[in-house]
Amino acid sequence: MSKLLVVDDEFRIREIIKKYAVFEGHEVTEATDGMAAIEICRRQKFDLIIMDVMMPELDGFSACREIRKTSATPIIMLSARGEEYDKIHGFELGIDDYVVKPFSPKELMLRVNAVLKRSSGTSTGKTDAFSYKGLTVDFMARIVTVDGNRVDMTPKEYDLFFYMVRNKGIALTREKLISEVWGYDFFGDDRTLDTHIKLLRKSLGEYSKCIVTLSGVGYRFEAL
Fold this sequence. Notes:
Elements: E1 3-7, H1 11-23, E2 27-31, H2 34-43, E3 48-52, H3 60-67, E4 75-79, H4 84-93, E5 97-100, H5 105-119, E6 129-132, E7 135-138, E8 143-146, E9 149-151, H6 155-166, E10 172-173, H7 174-182, H8 190-204, E11 211-214, E12 218-221
Parallel strand pairs: 1-2, 1-3, 3-4, 4-5
Antiparallel strand pairs: 6-7, 7-8, 8-9, 10-12, 11-12
């Protein structure tokens, strides 16, 4: 049984999510706004948070920012807005998935289970570190530095970057990256991958050129 926190100011939305989540065997705690969500997260630990963006008192993005200061709990954001800017902003804050309203409760539960499965997975052994000129990667500590300065990334950026570095020099198709980093049961679209690649390049600065776009195929990490 997984513990979920459902945060939405609409009673009807909370009720329908709770109904399907309980049916799937999850335990559900509810909050009506971002402030309440932050307070609850300070007292309890959850396996996953489902949070609406537009709420009174404190919006979902702001609440996510506060929660991320002390917790890496997976977060699925709900929003009536599907613009790329909002999705990018959410992923920059470290959310794990973004669902646009109105949504299918069954699909949402599939996304919930997919995120829970990925977050409970353990990392593969292999080498513990990688370095190339001023770029260093510590896989075990999940630390990336560029010219001695630590780079802050979201959990999913780390997952994607570490997978690409471990498979450096190999052409990785979009399908391969999505299945390995997000899971075979991921229900998002290709733009989610592109958004994270864009964020990764921004984080890597001059080493962004190490991530090579393979037109019509996917991407490759090069460190020559």
